Amino acid sequence: MNITSVVVSSALMATLAPAVANMSLQPMMASKRAENFSTAESTVVTFSAKAEKDNSIPTVPDECELGELGDGAYSITCEAGKGQFKQTVSRSFWIEDDNGGYTNPTRSFAFETPDRFSGHQCPPNDPWGVIWYNDHLRAGHLDACTPTVAWNRNKYINSNPNDWLYDISNFGFGQHPDY
Protein backbone atom coordinates (compact mmCIF):
# COMPACT_ATOMS: atom_id res chain seq x y z
CA MET A 1 0.00 0.00 0.00
CA ASN A 2 1.28 3.40 -0.72
CA ILE A 3 0.74 6.59 1.19
CA THR A 4 -1.86 7.87 -1.27
CA SER A 5 -4.07 4.85 -0.71
CA VAL A 6 -3.80 5.24 3.05
CA VAL A 7 -4.68 8.95 2.89
CA VAL A 8 -7.65 8.37 0.56
CA SER A 9 -8.89 5.46 2.68
CA SER A 10 -8.59 7.51 5.86
CA ALA A 11 -10.45 10.43 4.30
CA LEU A 12 -13.27 8.16 3.14
CA MET A 13 -13.58 6.50 6.54
CA ALA A 14 -13.63 9.88 8.27
CA THR A 15 -16.44 10.96 5.95
CA LEU A 16 -18.41 7.74 6.34
CA ALA A 17 -17.86 7.20 10.07
CA PRO A 18 -20.98 9.11 11.25
CA ALA A 19 -23.19 7.21 8.81
CA VAL A 20 -21.66 3.87 9.75
CA ALA A 21 -22.11 4.66 13.44
CA ASN A 22 -25.74 5.69 12.83
CA MET A 23 -26.43 2.47 10.90
CA SER A 24 -24.96 0.38 13.67
CA LEU A 25 -27.33 1.98 16.22
CA GLN A 26 -30.54 1.47 14.19
CA PRO A 27 -31.20 -2.14 15.26
CA MET A 28 -30.95 -1.16 18.93
CA MET A 29 -33.25 1.82 18.39
CA ALA A 30 -35.78 -0.34 16.52
CA SER A 31 -35.63 -2.89 19.32
CA LYS A 32 -36.44 -0.23 21.92
CA ARG A 33 -39.38 1.08 19.85
CA ALA A 34 -40.66 -2.47 19.42
CA GLU A 35 -40.40 -3.07 23.16
CA ASN A 36 -42.38 0.12 23.88
CA PHE A 37 -44.97 -0.79 21.25
CA SER A 38 -45.40 -4.22 22.86
CA THR A 39 -45.87 -2.63 26.27
CA ALA A 40 -48.50 -0.18 25.00
CA GLU A 41 -50.26 -2.88 22.94
CA SER A 42 -50.49 -5.31 25.85
CA THR A 43 -51.90 -2.55 28.06
CA VAL A 44 -54.71 -1.63 25.64
CA VAL A 45 -55.56 -5.25 24.86
CA THR A 46 -55.69 -6.19 28.54
CA PHE A 47 -57.78 -3.12 29.42
CA SER A 48 -60.32 -3.62 26.62
CA ALA A 49 -60.62 -7.37 27.28
CA LYS A 50 -61.27 -6.76 30.98
CA ALA A 51 -63.83 -4.05 30.16
CA GLU A 52 -65.71 -6.28 27.74
CA LYS A 53 -65.58 -9.28 30.11
CA ASP A 54 -66.79 -7.34 33.17
CA ASN A 55 -69.13 -5.14 31.13
CA SER A 56 -67.79 -2.09 32.98
CA ILE A 57 -64.91 0.36 32.68
CA PRO A 58 -61.92 -0.68 34.84
CA THR A 59 -59.46 1.80 36.34
CA VAL A 60 -57.63 3.56 33.51
CA PRO A 61 -53.83 3.13 33.74
CA ASP A 62 -51.77 6.31 34.21
CA GLU A 63 -50.18 6.15 30.74
CA CYS A 64 -53.57 5.74 29.03
CA GLU A 65 -56.48 7.91 28.01
CA LEU A 66 -60.08 6.73 27.67
CA GLY A 67 -62.37 8.16 25.00
CA GLU A 68 -66.13 7.70 24.73
CA LEU A 69 -67.38 7.14 21.19
CA GLY A 70 -71.08 6.90 22.04
CA ASP A 71 -73.64 4.06 22.11
CA GLY A 72 -71.53 2.07 24.58
CA ALA A 73 -68.37 2.23 22.43
CA TYR A 74 -65.09 3.43 23.88
CA SER A 75 -61.48 3.76 22.82
CA ILE A 76 -58.39 3.42 24.96
CA THR A 77 -55.09 5.00 23.89
CA CYS A 78 -51.87 4.13 25.72
CA GLU A 79 -48.31 5.36 25.37
CA ALA A 80 -45.03 3.75 26.32
CA GLY A 81 -41.53 5.21 26.10
CA LYS A 82 -40.24 8.75 25.74
CA GLY A 83 -38.89 10.95 22.98
CA GLN A 84 -38.09 9.22 19.71
CA PHE A 85 -38.88 5.86 21.29
CA LYS A 86 -42.46 6.77 22.33
CA GLN A 87 -45.09 4.43 20.88
CA THR A 88 -48.84 5.05 20.97
CA VAL A 89 -51.49 2.36 20.54
CA SER A 90 -55.29 2.66 20.42
CA ARG A 91 -58.03 0.07 20.59
CA SER A 92 -61.80 0.32 20.54
CA PHE A 93 -64.18 -1.81 22.56
CA TRP A 94 -67.83 -2.00 23.43
CA ILE A 95 -69.74 -2.24 26.70
CA GLU A 96 -73.26 -3.66 26.53
CA ASP A 97 -75.97 -1.44 27.92
CA ASP A 98 -79.07 -2.50 29.86
CA ASN A 99 -80.76 -3.54 26.62
CA GLY A 100 -78.26 -6.33 25.98
CA GLY A 101 -76.14 -4.00 23.90
CA TYR A 102 -78.91 -2.89 21.58
CA THR A 103 -79.56 0.81 21.71
CA ASN A 104 -82.89 0.73 19.88
CA PRO A 105 -85.29 -0.49 22.60
CA THR A 106 -88.13 1.66 21.19
CA ARG A 107 -87.66 -0.04 17.82
CA SER A 108 -87.62 3.21 15.86
CA PHE A 109 -85.92 3.15 12.47
CA ALA A 110 -84.86 5.77 9.96
CA PHE A 111 -87.09 4.43 7.17
CA GLU A 112 -90.57 2.92 6.95
CA THR A 113 -90.69 -0.81 6.27
CA PRO A 114 -91.87 -1.43 2.71
CA ASP A 115 -95.27 -3.11 2.38
CA ARG A 116 -94.02 -5.80 0.02
CA PHE A 117 -90.72 -7.19 -1.12
CA SER A 118 -89.83 -8.52 -4.53
CA GLY A 119 -87.69 -11.54 -5.25
CA HIS A 120 -84.84 -9.20 -6.16
CA GLN A 121 -82.01 -8.80 -3.69
CA CYS A 122 -80.78 -5.30 -2.91
CA PRO A 123 -77.44 -4.59 -4.59
CA PRO A 124 -74.24 -4.34 -2.51
CA ASN A 125 -73.97 -0.60 -3.14
CA ASP A 126 -77.51 -0.07 -1.77
CA PRO A 127 -77.96 -2.95 0.74
CA TRP A 128 -81.33 -1.68 2.04
CA GLY A 129 -82.60 -0.21 -1.22
CA VAL A 130 -83.14 3.19 0.42
CA ILE A 131 -80.46 5.13 -1.46
CA TRP A 132 -82.07 4.85 -4.89
CA TYR A 133 -82.98 1.27 -5.75
CA ASN A 134 -86.47 1.01 -4.21
CA ASP A 135 -87.55 4.41 -5.53
CA HIS A 136 -86.38 3.36 -8.98
CA LEU A 137 -88.27 0.06 -8.79
CA ARG A 138 -91.42 1.65 -7.43
CA ALA A 139 -91.38 4.12 -10.31
CA GLY A 140 -91.65 0.99 -12.47
CA HIS A 141 -94.43 -0.33 -10.16
CA LEU A 142 -92.35 -3.13 -8.62
CA ASP A 143 -91.98 -4.09 -4.97
CA ALA A 144 -88.96 -3.20 -2.80
CA CYS A 145 -85.77 -5.26 -3.01
CA THR A 146 -84.86 -7.70 -0.24
CA PRO A 147 -82.24 -6.21 2.16
CA THR A 148 -78.92 -8.03 2.31
CA VAL A 149 -79.41 -9.03 5.96
CA ALA A 150 -82.60 -10.86 4.98
CA TRP A 151 -81.10 -12.87 2.13
CA ASN A 152 -80.95 -15.93 4.35
CA ARG A 153 -81.56 -16.92 7.96
CA ASN A 154 -77.86 -16.96 8.85
CA LYS A 155 -77.33 -13.37 7.66
CA TYR A 156 -80.48 -12.32 9.53
CA ILE A 157 -79.56 -13.98 12.84
CA ASN A 158 -75.96 -12.68 12.69
CA SER A 159 -77.03 -9.12 11.88
CA ASN A 160 -77.15 -6.35 14.46
CA PRO A 161 -80.63 -4.75 14.72
CA ASN A 162 -78.95 -1.45 15.59
CA ASP A 163 -77.68 -1.36 12.01
CA TRP A 164 -81.07 -1.96 10.42
CA LEU A 165 -82.55 0.94 8.47
CA TYR A 166 -86.09 -0.38 8.83
CA ASP A 167 -87.75 -3.19 10.79
CA ILE A 168 -87.37 -6.60 9.11
CA SER A 169 -87.98 -8.66 12.25
CA ASN A 170 -91.21 -10.15 10.89
CA PHE A 171 -89.94 -10.63 7.36
CA GLY A 172 -89.91 -14.36 6.83
CA PHE A 173 -87.80 -15.25 9.88
CA GLY A 174 -89.97 -14.23 12.82
CA GLN A 175 -88.66 -12.12 15.66
CA HIS A 176 -84.91 -11.39 15.70
CA PRO A 177 -83.45 -13.20 18.74
CA ASP A 178 -81.96 -9.97 20.09
CA TYR A 179 -85.26 -8.10 20.10
Describe this protein with a few key phrases:
alpha+beta, about 180 residues, three-stranded antiparallel β-sheet, two-stranded parallel ribbon, single chain, 5 strands, 2 domains
Overview of this structure, please?
It is built from 3 helices and 5 strands, in the order H-E-E-E-E-H-E-H. It is of the alpha+beta class. The chain has 2 domains: about 5-95, no CATH class; about 100-179, no CATH class. It has a 3-stranded antiparallel beta sheet. Strands 4-5 form a two-stranded parallel ribbon. Strand 2 and strand 3 (about 85-95) form a beta hairpin. The longest helix is centred in the first third of the chain and has 52 residues, at about 5-55. About 10% of the residues are buried.
Distance between the termini: 88 Å
Which structural class is indicated by helix and strand composition?
alpha+beta
Secondary-structure element order, as H and E? HEEEEHEH
How many H/I helical runs?
3
Radius of gyration: 29 Å
Q: Helical amount among residues, as a percent range?
A: 25-40%
| Strands, total number | 5
Mean pLDDT: 82
Which sequence of strands runs across the widest sheet?
Answer: 1-2-3
Strand coverage percent: 15-25%
**How many structural domains in the coordinates?**
2
The largest β sheet comes out as: 3 strands, antiparallel
Poorly predicted runs: none
Report the principal-axis shape. elongated
